[in-house]
């Protein structure tokens, strides 16, 4: 069912709804890949059709490795979405990416395992070798950065997102290795979502919300990361998201 969606937003940890979305209707199809994380809420924002889906479910019941990424993306695609903005809560590894920073990364490294990572999984389906040199769509990244600029929202341009398996956080040695690998940010949901979006030909960009310093990355090396810190920092940093989305 094509709902002519101009922009689809997938919300991450601490982001379970979209402010200012009007005339909202929920849609919860079951796809050939199974059930979505929750309803796709389709409404109007600044005169445009916008869809919102909470990646972990509206009650945060799905851990990152159990999100049905294929169902979520195939439903957004079927609804006619061509642009997907993924909101991802992350830990910061390098200096520019401290807590409460918003960033629009331009690279990623996939450390996840055991997740269904392609639409080419089914018996007899086509083997898909999509180009993924730029994992985030450059034109959509530009639009996101311009929207932030015009809305007066500070947004770091670039950075490498390392996608880990979770649901536990990382060890300090794992983060030290990720830093050596070139990662600036660490999160658990960036993949396979970005790769599946590319397989579907969707424009896809990530708006990363830094919730904490990753293990050992902050000024206090043995700092313990609590879920409450994560939620508090996401809530504070999220103030910039509604104006950015309106501009987008
Ligand atoms: N590691 C992985 N994922 C995360 C983190 C982290 O430190 N913070 C928020 N999501």
Short description:
This protein is an alpha/beta fold and 248 residues long.
If you had to describe this structure to a student in words, what would you say it looks like?
The chain is an alpha/beta fold and 248 residues long. Helix content is 24%, strand content 26%. It has six helices and 13 strands. The chain has helices at 69-78, 138-151, 172-181, 193-199, 227-237, 241-247; strands at 7-11, 22-27, 30-31, 34-35, 40-45, 48-54, 83-92, 102-104, 107-110, 156-157, 160-163, 185-187, 203-213. Strands 1, 2, 5, 6, 7, 8, 9, 10, 11, 12 and 13 form an eleven-stranded mixed sheet that branches. It has a two-stranded antiparallel sheet with strand order 3-4. Helix 2 (138-151) crosses helix 6 (241-247). The longest helix has 14 residues, at 138-151. The chain is globular and about 50 Å long. This is Probable 6-oxopurine nucleoside phosphorylase.
**Overall pLDDT, averaged?**
93
Structural class: alpha/beta
- Fraction of helical residues: 10-25%
Roughly what fraction of the amino acids lie in strands?
25-35%
> What's the story with the biggest beta sheet?
11 strands, mixed
GO molecular function, one term: S-methyl-5-thioadenosine phosphorylase activity
Keywords: Glycosyltransferase, Purine salvage, Transferase
Protein name: Probable 6-oxopurine nucleoside phosphorylase
Binding site for substrate: 188, 212-214
């Amino acid at each position: 069912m094509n709902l002519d969606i101009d922009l689809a937003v997938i919300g991450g940890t601490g982001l379970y709804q979209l402010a200012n979305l009007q005339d909202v209707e929920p849609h919860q199809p079951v796809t050939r890949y199974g059930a979505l994380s929750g309803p796709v809420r389709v409404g109007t924002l600044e005169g445009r059709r916008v869809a919102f889906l909470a990646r972990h479910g509206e009650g945060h019941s799905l851990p990152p490795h159990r999100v049905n990424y294929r169902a979520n993306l195939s439903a957004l695609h079927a609804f006619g979405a061509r642009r997907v903005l993924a909101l991802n809560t992350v830990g910061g590894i390098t200096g520019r990416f401290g807590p409460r920073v918003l960033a629009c990364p331009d690279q990623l490294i996939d450390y996840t395992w055991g997740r269904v990572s392609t639409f080419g999984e089914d018996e007899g389906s086509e083997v898909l070798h999509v180009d993924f040199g730029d994992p985030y769509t450059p034109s959509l990244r530009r639009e996101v950065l311009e929207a932030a600029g015009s809305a007066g929202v500070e947004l770091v341009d670039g950075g490498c997102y390392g996608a880990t398996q979770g649901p536990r956080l990382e060890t300090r040695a794992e983060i030290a290795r990720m830093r050596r690998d070139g990662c600036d940010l660490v999160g658990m949901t960036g993949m396979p979502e970005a790769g599946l979006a590319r397989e579907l030909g969707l424009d896809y960009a990530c708006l990363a919300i830094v919730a904490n310093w990753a293990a050992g990355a902050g000024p206090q090396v043995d700092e313990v990361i609590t879920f409450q810190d994560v939620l508090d920092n996401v809530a504070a940093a999220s103030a910039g998201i509604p104006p950015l989305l309106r501009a987008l």
